[in-house]
Every structure is written in structure tokens, then in C-alpha cells.
Amino acid sequence: xxxxxLLPLMFLSESLPAQSTLDTVRARGFLQCGVNTSLAGFAQPxxxxxxxxxxxxxxxxxxxxxxxxxxxxxxxxxxSQQRFTALQSGEVDxxxxxTTWTIVRDTSLGLNFVGVxxxxxxxxxxxxxxxxxxAKQLNGATICVQxxxxxxxxxxxxxxxxxxxxxxxxxEKLEEVLNAYFAGRCDAYTTDxxxxxxxxxxxxPKPEDHVVLPEIISKxxxxxxxxxxxxxxxxxxxxxxxxxxxxxxxxxTSKNIDVRARGADPSVQRFVGASGxxxxxxxxxxxxxxxxxxQVGNYGESFDANLKPLGFERGLNRLWNQGxxxxxxxxx
Length: 332
Ligand SMILES: N[C@@H](CCC(=O)N[C@@H](CS)C(=O)NCC(=O)O)C(=O)O
Known about the structure:
- This protein is about 40% helix and about 15% strand.
- The chain has 14 helices and 14 strands.
- Glutathione binds next to helix 6, strand 11 and strand 13.
């Protein structure tokens, strides 16, 4: 009797798709987002403890798409070394933490990168008093770097390729690696160019005492990632990023989207969910993209709010039709 009852159940559980992270997030009522421990412009709590930054805006956009409410996010600050385990183990639903998309991470670490939210490259910062003007003058230098980063690997490649020697000082915690560099324990600090600019501006006792060298030694396409094996969630998080980019291309902003939604433009009508079933195809409310833009803003708005005040240029992160690399496939 028992076997007779169990057999159809076993068959059923195998034929149904496994529960998606989307269902988990819905049932829980909030998104758990993995972010930086504290990086100005990308993810950092403000003086009131409210998380702000380009990556934080991405977390909020996913919550707006999945739950209709950008405020339904909890943040898990993660060091470079903790971040992948946190995603793999299910501690976070999304990792939005200045993380470079590489083939190793995309395959053997079991991640799916949803795209790129900041095109970057690695650089070096040195104290001005050393009078170094090029990375090529760093032969024999002591260099501070965080473990578990692409930066640690690229550093070794760069020195080997240029036939130069260096002494790495590898420290896990951002706070501690910065303390070591600012205390003069290293001749240089290396990380993503965006990190150098943000950290010099926000953490250096005297920003003007440090220079970022002109060499960019790698490609660092930074993007949000989810776990392998959950295509529905992968789709939603991926199209959240595309919706932010597409909104900028359509000229839709948090300020004008209500007015534009009343107009006749078919692309805008589809985007805001007034026509078509795109939300339904993603398994969410048809106003998913409207909610992202209304509550968080388009990609350019997020860039301008978080990175422009720190002196960042759009550069490669301009839209494709303005000389940059930001390009979203058609929302149709
Ligand atoms: N993009 C690189 C580097 C990312 C990274 O971890 N950068 C450092 C320096 S800006 C950081 O964010 N540290 C913050 C922390 O570990 O708390 C990667 O994905 O490996």
C-alpha cells in the first residue's frame, strides 16, 4: 500500500522542475544580496546605515522585479574570499559585488554571470612621494593585494610577462590591506581601477598623496552572478540588468516613466507591461521593468547617482550607441 502511494509521488517530484530561487525569494519576502564589505560607489552603508551604490542598486532592481518592491533586500557583506562560497551555499540569492566574469568562475565555481554592470581593468596606486610614473618602474616593489581576486593572479602574470620581480603582501580583509598600504608597508596597492579611485577618494588619509598609474593591465568585466542550475532565476536576474540598460536607451527614467507610459511608443508600452506578456514569461508581475525604473532608475541614473560624485567617467560604460559597451538585447 505504502509503495503504491510513494511511487506516483516519486515520479511527480522528478518530472517537476526543482523549486526556483524565485519561489524561495517570494516565500521569504525579501532578497538576500551578497555585496562588498564597504566600497564607495558600489556598496557601502551611508551615515544612516542605508546601503548605497551601483551594486546595491542592482540588488534593489532585482527585488523590484521579483517582489515589486525595491526595499525588500537584505545585504550580506562579503570579502573577496568569502563571496563565492556564500553564493554556492545558498546564503545569498545573488552576488552583486564588483566580481570579474572569468571562465573559471563561470564553469568550475558553478556560477552564471548575468552580464556586466561595470567594465573595468586592473591598475596600481602608489604614494606620490615615490615619484613612480609607470607600472614598468615597479621592478622589485612590494605590492599589497587581496587574496581570492583576479588581481592577485594578474599581478603575477604582469610581472612575469615584463620580466620584473615583486614581493606580494597578501591580506584578506580590505581594511587591513588598506592600512598596510597607507602605513607604507607596500610600495603599491593593486586592484580594479574603479576600486583604486573609490578607495583613494574615500579611505586615503590624504587622497592627494597617492597617484593611480596609467597602466591598465587586465580586463575586469564586473557583473552580478547567480548559481548554476536555476534557469528561471538566471533569466530574471539577467533581464533585470538588461532592463536597466534598455531603459536608458529608451530615455526612460524614474522621473519620466509615468508620463512616457501614457504615450504611444510600442517599445515603451511593452517595457512598462501595458502590452505583451513579458512579465508573465519571466514568472513575475507584468510591471517588473516599470517597477525597476520607477523605484531604482535606469543604468545611467544609477551610475550618475553613485559613481559620478566620486569623479568616475562613463568611458566603456556608456551605451553602445554612445561609444560604450552597454548593450541590451531586445525586450520583445
Ligand atoms: N574584480 C576583482 C576584484 C574584486 C575585489 O574583491 N576587490 C577588492 C578591492 S576594491 C574588494 O572589493 N575588497 C572588498 C572586501 O574584500 O571587503 C575580482 O572579482 O576578483
